[in-house]
């Protein structure tokens, strides 16, 4: 997606440890116009899939999913990472390992909002090792629902998550795939 | 806001400890159509205030702020509760006490995204004790920016946060104010 790649080149900052900071538009400050273009792009790619629900994970997936959901006329469901009084006792749970935090955390979805008739579209801001997506996939399977695919804004193509999920037969559509951040230079696939 | 109150009466569930669960449409599953109506309502109430930035706090404020921001054509900024590699080192910080979790947590905003020329509109899903809003207000003041007011979806009017903030001269517009949840019954002001 050209507009997104231009934005990444303009405002993205590469920091030590292959970190790409896009906090000016994607995960701290939010460029709502860009999110709308991202939503339209996801819609055009997944419009014929009979999706019934958009699933994401707190925190940075929420705004992208909410804006995108407008183009699908569908509800969003976001997995909680923390214990929350807002959640039912009856939840689907999965463990997600975070490489950056070097520990596992639980993600939860209230059972009442996902069932075997659902066709689920996953949305997230970044895909690197793919552990968050695997956790969401696990929850979709626990619910007996169908996983239609995942829409990712930025995939770190030099990490293994995306390719490994694709090898498992999951459709992963990333709007920008980055092949290298070496020497502070952003190289797209 | 009539539509919101109807939705709360229809789908809200009152649980022990004056908890109002609205996870079917506001803070776990998201009813995007309703969020759009909420966004339009905030716009109509705050359209003449010269707002330059919409500020919220993770997690449940994000979707509401993002959808609302479309009507203002403004960027959203959301305060982070957790240490995050996505954040700059240069941040405004404030401590927020959580009564439900019985501990304080830090909220952070990267300094580069808020400055003295900003006129800031706060958005959040719930207002109860008002500690989160006070933390955001503190950050707005640290930046030398102007606080225009706060748009709240549901205020628990039987707790003291809203009234106390209003006594401090802050404009608080809550779309639904609940005066009582006693005996499992939702009474609006």
Could you characterize the architecture of this molecule?
In chain A, the strands form three sheets. Chain A has a six-stranded mixed beta sheet, with helices on both faces. The first copy, chain A, has a two-stranded antiparallel sheet with strand order 1-2. In chain A, strands 6-7 form a two-stranded antiparallel ribbon. The N and C termini of chain A lie close together (12 Å). Chain A has five helices and eleven strands; from the N terminus they run αβββαβαββββαβαββ. Chain A is globular, with a radius of gyration of 16 Å. The mean pLDDT of chain A is 95. The first copy, chain A, is an alpha/beta fold and 189 residues long. In chain A, strand 9 (146-156), helix 5 (161-167) and strand 10 form a beta-alpha-beta unit. Chain A has helices spanning 2-11, 32-46, 61-72, 131-142, 161-167, and strands at 13-15, 19-21, 29-30, 53-57, 76-79, 91-98, 103-110, 119-127, 146-156, 172-180, 187-188. Chain A binds chain B through residues 19, 21, 23-24, 27-33, 35-36, 58-60, 62-63, 65-67, 69-70, 73-78, 80, 85-88, 100, 109-110, 112-113, and chain B through 19, 21, 23-24, 27-33, 35-36, 58-60, 62-63, 65-67, 69-70, 73-78, 80, 85-88, 100, 109-110, 112-113. Strand 3 (29-30) of chain A pairs antiparallel with strand 5 (76-79) of chain B.
